[in-house]
Specification:
By secondary structure, this protein is an alpha+beta fold. 66% of the residues lie in helices and 12% in strands. It contains 14 helices and 8 strands. A 3-stranded antiparallel sheet has the order 3-7-6. A 3-stranded antiparallel sheet has the order 4-5-8. β1 and β2 form a beta hairpin. It starts with a helix and ends with a helix. The relative contact order is 0.17. The C terminus is likely disordered.
Length: 357
């Protein structure tokens, strides 16, 4: 029970730490240019997480075969935060917090079109609701609606992160800490080069320190706590707790920045909350867990025939390691499944027949 409560605390803490990103970034943008801030946030996450984890040797590191997806991940992680920071200059932090949910829409649609993933009816409804809410939030003003171009940039960032999520998904079996460190350091360096090339000024040492610290806390530590929660709770339940992040971001924006959104925002907020509930319930209902030995090929018999099952997992899944390292639990969507290749074991079949005689 204590371990589970600790994991839930880690999941909520991960959401809370990420939620402070947008309101505090909005404050930093008064002294730091958008591209420079994006660079410092990611560098803070990458360098900080590297030092925080003690520079330990990682298990299952990335290899040359994953290079295309790694490069794609880094490039998209350069574009997304830059768009987000420029968007924050022209829209409220509360707006941006909710619009970040459009990342789920982008991720799901890209997975459908590129990887032929099956989307449930509940998820389709959630996608429609998130899109509708995003449109409402993107218009501001009383009476005649006025389109907010900052919201469009935030949505562009969400689309980039949708593509990035699908690149990262191809690396899901690799070390999460290594992936996050690479994201932070190389995406941060890429953004820094762009910032210097377009003539953005280097801020003062205090602003640099504040930006690096925010990146470490809001990105690095948030991801670290998320991974810790996922080991105990599994992917579905962790994502359910983490889904509060946009709404915490709205609350913090109002508290820290004193933002008071328009009526259209609150309507979008209600629709977004309903969509989030649909996505969370869909994630949990479509996932199940089962235990098996760490060796993916195992022999057993039923129906009088002994054979082995070779598990070929089509889609990425999450391993949750317990105290007994020989056994692990993994979750996957019921629709995604895995292939069973049956191989009859004649010697075991004869042994079973002899024992019956």
């Amino acid at each position: 029970m204590t371990t589970k409560r600790t994991a839930i605390t880690c999941a909520i803490l991960a959401a809370a730490l990420y939620a402070i990103n947008l309101p505090l970034s909005k404050l930093l943008l008064t002294a730091v240019s958008p591209t420079m801030l994006a660079a410092l946030l990611y560098l803070g996450a990458g360098i900080g997480l590297y030092l925080f984890t003690g520079r330990k040797k990682v298990d299952n590191p990335l290899t040359r075969s994953e290079l295309p997806y790694t490069v794609g991940m880094v490039v998209l992680d350069i574009a997304a935060p830059i768009l987000l920071m420029f968007g924050l200059r022209h829209t409220g932090s509360a707006n941006a917090s909710l619009l970040n949910n459009f990342e789920i829409v982008a991720t799901s649609l890209i997975a459908l079109l590129v990887f032929r993933e099956v989307l449930s009816r509940r998820l389709w409804l959630a996608i429609v609701l998130v899109t509708l809410a995003s449109i409402l939030i993107s218009f501001e003003g009383e009476g005649a609606f006025q389109f907010n171009w900052g919201s469009l940039l935030v949505l562009g960032a969400a689309v980039c992160w949708g593509f990035e999520n699908n690149c990262t998904r191809m690396l899901s079996a690799k070390s999460s800490v290594q992936i996050t460190t690479i994201k932070g350091i190389f995406s941060g360096l890429g953004s820094l080069v762009i910032a210097l090339c377009i003539g953005e000024a280097v801020p003062g040492i205090l602003w640099i320190g504040a930006s690096l610290l925010l990146g470490f806390v809001a990105y690095g530590l948030s991801i670290n706590f998320y991974i810790m929660a996922q080991k105990e709770l599994g992917a579905a339940k962790t994502s359910a707790y983490y889904a509060i992040a946009p709404f915490l971001g709205v609350a913090l924006s109002m508290l820290i920045l004193g933002e008071r959104p328009t009526r259209s925002f609150y309507l979008g907020f209600a629709i977004m909350a309903a969509a989030t509930w649909l996505m969370v319930s869909d994630t949990i209902s479509l996932q199940h867990t089962h235990l098996h030995t760490h060796v993916h090929t195992h022999a057993h018999s039923h129906g009088g025939v002994a054979h082995t099952h070779e598990h070929t997992h089509i889609h990425a899944h999450t391993h949750v390691h317990g105290e007994n390292e020989g056994i692990h639990e993994h979750s996957h969507r019921a629709l995604e499944g895995h292939d069973h290749t049956h191989q009859e074991n004649r010697s075991e079949l004869l042994d079973d027949r002899d024992s019956l005689l």
